[in-house]
Specification:
The chain has about 220 residues and is an alpha/beta fold. The chain has a single domain (about 5-215), classed as 3-Layer(aba) Sandwich (Rossmann fold). It contains eight helices and five strands. It has helices spanning about 5-20, 25-30, 50-60, 80-85, 90-100, 120-130, 150-160, 190-215; strands at about 40-45, 70-75, 110-115, 140-145, 165-170. Strand 1, helix 3 and strand 2 form a beta-alpha-beta unit. The relative contact order is 0.19.
Length: about 220
């Protein structure tokens, strides 16, 4: 990364911290819940998947959508452990088995190969999948509340540059987390979540948006 870009990101970070200090509503802004009456698929974003799995199962049971899409998550040295005889269950497999245990039929779960390392990767992989499955034009991203705004921006931009008319709804797993959207500044963990998302939002604006155009 060039020195000028590092300086720019540093200034962006300082501005973000200043802005956050004077804007207590950013927790609510990040937690952009927008659930349509019905969707073609729920997209379970990996990461802190336990609370997200619970929320996905709730949405499936409520009839919002009749299928769940999961992009296979990268686990770094996972394959190396397998090659050396270590038995380990991937996060993606754990998410699938948990959903099934919670009542989601196995044949309603679509796992897309991809070795995704980030939300950016998930957005690109889901976009490519939907390009060949045009009957899916309404999705709901399921994630932790503080992650929703950036995730929806990434997915919407990915669809837009590819010319895919896909409505992107969002649903947060807030009832299964301790994140407080209204008083996030009172918790060290919540402050870390908010600061991290603001920094990553800067990365989306300065870097990832252009990458999406190149990888369409």
């Amino acid at each position: 990364m060039s020195g000028s870009k590092i300086i720019f990101l540093g200034v962006l970070f300082l501005l973000a911290v200043t802005y956050i200090g004077g804007c207590r509503q950013i927790g609510t802004w990040l937690s952009d819940d927008n659930i349509p009456p019905h969707a073609d698929a729920l997209v379970l974003l990996m990461g802190n998947f336990t609370d997200r799995v619970l929320k996905t199962a709730d949405l499936y049971e409520s009839g919002i959508a009749d299928r769940v899409i999961i992009v296979e998550e990268s686990m770094g040295g996972y394959q190396g452990l397998i090659d050396r005889g270590v038995k380990i269950i991937s996060h993606t497999s754990q998410a699938v088995s948990s959903l099934v245990a919670l009542g989601v039929p196995a044949d309603s779960i679509i796992v897309i190969p991809g070795d995704a390392r980030s939300t950016f990767d998930e957005a690109v992989i889901v976009r490519n999948y939907l390009s060949g499955n045009r009957e899916i034009d309404t999705i709901v991203l399921v994630s932790s509340p503080y992650h929703l705004r950036r995730a929806s921006m990434l997915f919407e931009k990915a669809f837009r540059v590819a010319g895919l008319p896909v409505f992107t709804g969002t649903s947060g797993s807030g009832n299964y987390t301790g994140f407080n959207t209204d008083r996030w500044w009172r918790s060290k963990e919540d402050i870390q979540h908010v600061l991290t998302e603001v920094i990553k939002m800067g990365s989306f604006i300065t870097v990832e948006g252009s990458r999406l155009k190149r990888e369409k």
